[in-house]
Structure formats: C-alpha cells, structure tokens
Specification:
Elements: E1 2-4, E2 17-23, H1 26-34, H2 36-43, E3 47-53, E4 66-67, E5 77-78, H3 80-88, E6 95-105, H4 108-114, E7 119-123, E8 140-143, H5 153-164, E9 197-198, E10 201-202, H6 212-230, H7 242-250, H8 255-260
Parallel strand pairs: 2-3, 2-7, 6-7, 6-8
Antiparallel strand pairs: 1-3, 4-5, 9-10
Helix pairs in contact: 1-5
C-alpha cells in the first residue's frame, strides 16, 4: 500500500514527475517531500512524492521483511520477495533505482537525465541491504559517495532535492540552475549580498558597478579560479573557451595541464591595421 503525502484539495493536474520511495521508514522522507521548494512544487502539481512502506508487503502478521543471510554472518538481509511485491503495487516506472555502494556515482549529469523521466522508483535499503536477487528487479544502481550509511533514506533525500529542482517550473527562475556548480562544468562563482561591508570584508566593486559584461567576466574568472584551486579534476570535462585558456594560464595552470584538459588555443591577438600613407601632394599647376 502506498502512503501518499497529503496535498491541498485544490491541487490539480498530472505531475510532471513522480518519485516513489520504497522504504522501511517513510517518516524519515516525509519532511523532505512536504516542506520548502519540493512541498510547494507538489502543491502546484508539478511533481509528486509517494512513500511505500515495505512492511506492508512482508506477507506475515509481524510485518517482518528481513531474514538471516545464507552462509552466516552478521546483520539481516531484506527479502527479495518483499521488494518484488512492493514494486508490483506501483504503476509502471521509467526507472527502478537501487541505492548501492556498487552503483553508478550520482552526479549532476545523472540528475539532469532523471529529471526528464515521468516516474522514478527508488529502493532504500537497511540492515545489510537487499537480497542480491533484487538487482534483477532494477534498471540501475546509484551511489552518492564512497561511504557507508545506516540506510538509503538520506541518499534518497539528496536525489529528491537534486532532481526535483530541475523539473520545469519548480524553481522560480527557470535559468537559475544553469550556472550552479557542476551544471556549467565548473564550481559556482561566489555570491554576495548585504551588508556591503562586514568585519573588514567588502563586496567586490565589480558587482556594484552595474556593468553586466564586467560582472559576467568576473564570475567566469572566479568559477575558473575556484575550480582550479579546489576541484581541478572537473576541468577535464568542462566546456572551456579560448578566453578560459588565457584565464587559466594567468591563474597558474601549466601548458601540460591545459593540454590534459583539452583547453582550446587562446584567441589570436588582433593585428593592427597599418595606417594608409597620405596621398602625395598634386604637382603645382595641376
């Protein structure tokens, strides 16, 4: 049985994207779906979140979903038949995703891909995870990092927030996510707001000057500088321009690094036009 979160009575229309989460602890995910931008998007019918309690598909009166592993060992394993029954209760999905340490790394590119779907189903494990045969029920496995957590709900919340904000209409400015870190291939540039002076630190003058071209150039330079200093690995796949090549060189990047990143050649300097010689004076009496 699915556990839909309550929505206002005036919510209308078919959501652009539905997230279904199979979990043993739906209460952990409920706040992420009910509050802030995701909650407002659900109220407007742009997306929906369905929480499926796998204990409802245990098939026994004690709602026991796990059992001891064959071959011995510590911990308990979630049964594959429970996962299968829970999945069968849902409408057809574009993707059925299992959170797993062996999964594909979750990146901004993956978030953008998933945002194009209509129905995503996620399996959130607990204990020692799912019976390995559950892998045959999914279309892909995802990992949010090389570390171990107690369950998949925190990972699910990360994916929900990352993907939901890409659904058209969810953010107030449809272009606001395009300059985000990773969306542009680089880390984001630093942002400032009031007060203009704080504990000896000032907002850069260029941001208060009103020159939009200068602001754009400053932000691009700052994004390049941050990426070079903190995440130079991103520059291998970043869409660099000839002007970026000049900026990176000024920031200390070596020719070998620029070549490794596939940076294009810098723009050729413009040749100055030679002044035309003045016409000779006409001969006298002409």
């Amino acid at each position: 049985m699915t556990d839909p979160l309550p929505l206002p009575d005036d919510t209308a229309g078919t959501p652009g994207l539905t997230f279904s989460f199979l979990t043993l602890f739906p209460e952990l995910l409920a706040p992420f779906a009910a509050e802030a931008i995701v909650g407002k998007a659900r109220e407007r019918g742009l997306l929906d979140v369905r929480l499926v309690n796998m204990r409802d598909f245990a098939g026994n009166r004690h709602h026991k979903v796990d059992d001891t592993p064959y071959g011995g060992g510590a911990g308990m394993v979630i049964r594959v038949d429970v996962a299968e029954r829970a999945l069968a209760s849902l409408p057809a999905a574009d993707e059925v995703i299992l959170f797993s340490p062996a999964g594909q790394p979750f990146t901004q590119a993956v978030a953008e891909e998933l945002a194009e779907r209509r129905h995503l189903v996620f399996l959130c494990g607990r204990y020692e995870g799912f019976d390995a045969r559950t892998e045959g029920l999914v279309t892909r496995e995802l990992s949010i990092g090389d570390f171990v957590m107690m369950g998949g709900e925190a990972a699910a919340a990360c994916v929900l927030e990352a993907v939901a904000r890409l659904v058209p209409g969810v953010l107030g400015d449809p272009e606001s996510h395009q300059a985000d870190s990773f969306s542009s291939g680089l880390l984001d540039y630093p942002e400032y707001t009031r007060p203009p002076e704080w504990r000896g630190q000032s907002v850069p003058d260029v941001l208060r000057g009103g020159n939009h071209g200068a602001v754009a150039a400053w932000r691009r330079g700052q994004a390049l500088a941050r990426t070079l200093a903190r995440r130079p690995d991103l520059l291998v796949s970043a869409p660099l321009t000839p002007a970026d090549t000049v900026t990176l060189g000024e920031l200390g990047a070596t020719p070998e690094q620029l070549q490794e990143w596939g940076a294009p050649p810098p723009p050729r300097p413009k040749r100055r036009k030679r002044p035309r010689p003045a016409d000779p004076d006409p001969p006298p009496g002409s």
